[in-house]
Amino acid sequence: MAEKKTQSFMRSLCMGEIEEDILLPFPKVSPTDRELLKGVLGSIDSLLKPHAKDFRAWDRAGEFPPGFVDELRQFGLFSLVIPESYGGMGMGSTAYSRTLQEIARYDGSVAVTVGAHSSIGMRGLLLFGTDEQKRRFMPRLATGELIAAFCLTEAGAGSDAAAIKTNAVRDGDDWVLNGEKLWITNGGMAGFFTVFAKTGAAGERGHMTTFIVTRDLKGVSTGPHEDKLGLRASSTTTVTFEDVRVPAANVLGEVGKGFKVAMKILNSGRTGLGGGCVGAMKELIALSAKQAKERVQFGQPVSSFGLVKQKLGHMVVECYATEAAVSVVAGLIDQGYEDYQVEAAISKVFASECLWRTADEALQIAAGNGYMCDFPYERKLRDARINRIFEGTNEILRLFIALTAMNDVGGQLKELANSLQGVFNDPIKGFGVLSEYALKRASLATGIKRAKGAFTKLPPSLAPQAALFEEATKDLATAADRILRKHGKNIIGKQFATKRLADIMTDLFVMACVLSRVASSIKDKGERGAAKELEIAQVFSGQARRRVKTHLSKIDDNDDELIKSLADHAFERDGYAWDTL
Amino acid sequence: MKILVTAKRVEDPESKIKVKPDGTGIVLEGLKYKINPFDEIAVEEALRLVAKFPGEVVVASVGGKEVQEQLRHALAMGATRAVWVNHTGPLDQMGIAALLQKVAEKEKPDLVILGKQSIDDDQNQIGQYLAEWLGWAQATFASKVESFESDAEKNKVPALTVSADVKTVRVVREVDGGLATVECQLPAVVTADLRLNMPRYASLPGIMKAKSKPIEELTPVGLGVDVTPKLTVTKMMAPPARKAGIKVPDVATLVQKLKTEAKVL
């Protein structure tokens, strides 16, 4: 078991192996947690429902009234992931993600306020804090007396986090911190900042350290409330540090390991964002269903028209798939798996893009009404947009997803190359390695049964979908192999190809999560009880299979270079070059 | 002051309730449940009273294991401890009242507060039976004079007026056409109407505290109550769909139609 926990489903899959035990059975909430969660969710409803009308006004105003934030504090919404021993709820990832889902049904600004605190703001303390640091801050973070903010981004360091300029210099027992952070969620009301600063020599990239900075320290200040597209009621500000003397006891984790700390925090917090996306999607589906049944055109409700059904049907499939993927990632974290960053990144990319499509189609179903501010669609659309940008843009995450996989495949190819060199010195050893790889490639190509090449624990009714998954798995291994052979070391610069691989991986992971979830429903409710879910599995698997095929075919047959050249053309001219005049 | 309150498990009013085609009951699949909203008001009133007259709030419910959810909800709101009468199977209002009577005799509270009715079958009988069988005073449909926007409501001031010596309670009752004020000797049974107060929500710290609060398990046999129903439900049906209304051009036509068609004038 212990050994198993170091494995990643997706990294194994890129080698052509389906480690089904990692995803099966679908993670379930324990009966005790279920009861606790029911109470929590019911209470959140009674807290937020009476404010349903206020959220629109607060979006307009661009801020929450202070009384409302106090209400959130008293309710205990800042205590979700804090251990019980420090006065918190002690929620694991599954319970936390489900809770954020419920909050996001009502309002994105509330969800991001709570999420920025729990998912990233104080997560560094949770993951890396010493007992002494936890004792000092956790109780006040639990009550919301201290609200937390995550301070990484700077004007010149967004996706390229290692480029930060904020720096800290050791001086006696303190570190002296200088710099400015940008777009900090909760900035205006936070009392606890997790700050990343350069601690290496000038010009040395990536040597950074994480500091706990509290607002009471001299030299900490925050800028005005930013005027944003969405999540307008939530607080976003700059945070400035001017000769702030931070006690050495406030260093979080090891000096110089700040980049790793930042990545671990972001990975660990992803299920909060995913849960928020699921909640918003569920709400949009409910709104759309009601809207479509009430709106009458051509003498019948628009819900009877095929093109409206097509939209709602896809919304349902994507919501189910997102929920499955987010739940699996949360389950992996709660079960103690250590290598889940690829899966977590996939769930973030997939969730945020499904939510965007859902918000867009929900607005389209409501059409003219959807465009009006009297209806909630435009606000939900604006609120949804940031999810594709923050906590790692989807572009950066796609590169991360694919490059991690290709590193592994590349490692194998390199081993092969090394042993090929040795073939002449030690033919027997060389032949062994060669034949193993050749065998794998042959089995991928011919479909000869191999170990872990198939699902064995899915119910028979999912056999056609399992077969699609296995075919697509072969395509993935082929794609990774072919892309690497084609581009070799240059792969870092081949973002089009990398994105294709990431998209294949995304489809495969989500499909596996859907199959796992439907399998568990069939087990619990029987095939009849899970009939609708089986339909979802059919739709998603079919779509995913077709997309994977398309991506695979585009590895060799594409217009990548033409597209790049046209972009360069626009860059040269600072815009579009033609006119019909 | 010791107060006994109830927490009945009822279908969430926001769930879609459908009657089974054969009329033997309602479709349970996909239903959500919550504490009877009138009971929630009773719990709130009890909590406000014990804040003024220190003591305890004991919450009781009857049903299978699942009613512990509603008991935990009341505990999370702030009730001190819970009594769970474990019973599955049919039960009518006489059975429930008899069980509550035994619980009240065992607990000896100064006051019993319960919802005026439960929103599942809206019978409005338990409080009345209970007071009669206990031989205690009763004040049904307790309401208050202040509005929900008043400072008293914001400060969670109790609407029931208990005398300083905890001997009597004064209750404003909602009656047809107005309010009536009655004063009862304690112990008494009070049933809560909708406008008595705005119940607090269970905060997350409250939910955590509730996890360790005791729930005492009792049974009808242990309490010596025969709960065999005297009442059986023979058939359930949904109310017939309302017919579409009509628009009339003027008052004269309306009067005419009320006379000739509706025959109410």
What is this structure's SSE topology?
The complex is a heterodimer of chains A (581) and B (265).
Chain A (H helix, E strand, L loop, with lengths): L8 H5 L6 H4 L7 H18 L3 H10 L4 H10 L17 H14 L1 H14 L1 H6 L2 H13 L4 E4 L15 E5 L2 E12 L6 E7 L9 E7 L5 E3 L13 E12 L3 E2 L5 H37 L1 E2 L2 E2 L4 H29 L6 H31 L5 H9 L8 H29 L4 H20 L16 H25 L7 H35 L1 H24 L5 H14 L8
Parallel strand pairs in A: 1-4
Antiparallel strand pairs in A: 2-3, 3-7, 4-5, 5-8, 6-7, 9-10
Helix pairs in contact in A: 3-6, 6-7, 6-10, 7-10, 10-11, 10-12, 11-12, 11-17, 11-18, 12-13, 12-14, 12-17, 14-15, 14-17, 16-17, 16-18, 17-18
Chain B lengths: L1 E5 L2 E3 L21 E3 L1 H16 L3 E8 L4 H10 L3 E6 L6 H15 L3 E5 L10 H9 L2 E7 L7 H4 L6 E2 L5 E8 L2 E8 L2 E5 L11 H7 L4 E4 L1 H4 L27 H12 L3
Parallel strand pairs in B: 1-4, 1-6, 4-5, 5-12, 6-11, 7-11
Antiparallel strand pairs in B: 2-3, 7-9, 8-9, 9-10
Helix pairs in contact in B: 2-6, 3-4
Brief characterization of the structure:
The complex is a heterodimer of chains A (581) and B (265). Chain A has 581 residues and is an alpha+beta fold.
Write out key terms for the chains shown.
heterodimer, A: about 575 residues, alpha+beta, Butyryl-CoA Dehydrogenase, subunit A, domain 3, Butyryl-Coa Dehydrogenase, subunit A, domain 1, Butyryl-CoA Dehydrogenase, subunit A, domain 2, 4 domains, four-stranded mixed sheet, four-stranded antiparallel sheet, 19 helices, about 10% strand, globular, B: about 260 residues, alpha/beta, Rossmann fold, ten-stranded mixed sheet, two-stranded antiparallel sheet, 12 strands, about 25% strand
Tally the helices of chain B. Answer: 8
- Looking at this structure, what is the CATH superfamily of the largest domain in chain A? Butyryl-CoA Dehydrogenase, subunit A, domain 3
With strands numbered from the N-terminus, the spatial order across the biggest sheet of chain A is 1-4-5-8
Radius of gyration of chain A: 25 Å
Question: Can you put this structure into words, describing what you see?
Answer:
- The complex is a heterodimer of chains A (about 575) and B (about 260).
- By secondary structure, chain A is of the alpha+beta class.
- Chain A is globular.
- In chain A, helix 16 runs antiparallel to helix 17, helix 16 (about 465-485) runs parallel beside helix 18 (about 530-555) and helix 17 runs antiparallel to helix 18 (about 530-555).
- Chain A has 19 helices and ten strands.
- The longest helix of chain A has about 35 residues, at about 260-295.
- A four-stranded mixed beta sheet of chain A has the order 1-4-5-8. Chain A has a four-stranded antiparallel beta sheet with strand order 2-3-7-6, with helices on one face.
- Helix content of chain A is about 60%, strand content about 10%.
- Chain A has four domains: about 10-20 and about 265-385, Butyryl-CoA Dehydrogenase, subunit A, domain 3; about 30-145, Acyl-CoA dehydrogenase/oxidase, N-terminal domain (Butyryl-Coa Dehydrogenase, subunit A, domain 1), CATH 1.10.540.10; about 150-260, Butyryl-CoA Dehydrogenase, subunit A, domain 2 (Beta Barrel), CATH 2.40.110; about 395-400 and about 410-565, Butyryl-CoA Dehydrogenase, subunit A, domain 3 (Up-down Bundle).
- The model of chain A has no long low-confidence stretch (mean pLDDT about 90).
- With about 260 residues, chain B is of the alpha/beta class.
- In chain B, the strands form two sheets. In chain B, strands 1, 4, 5, 6, 7, 8, 9, 10, 11 and 12 form a ten-stranded mixed beta sheet that branches.
- In chain B, strand 8 and strand 9 (about 170-175) form a beta hairpin.
- Helices cover about 30% and strands about 25% of the residues of chain B.
- The longest helix of chain B has 16 residues, at about 35-50.
- Chain B has one domain (about 1-140, about 180-260): HUPs (Rossmann fold), CATH 3.40.50.620.
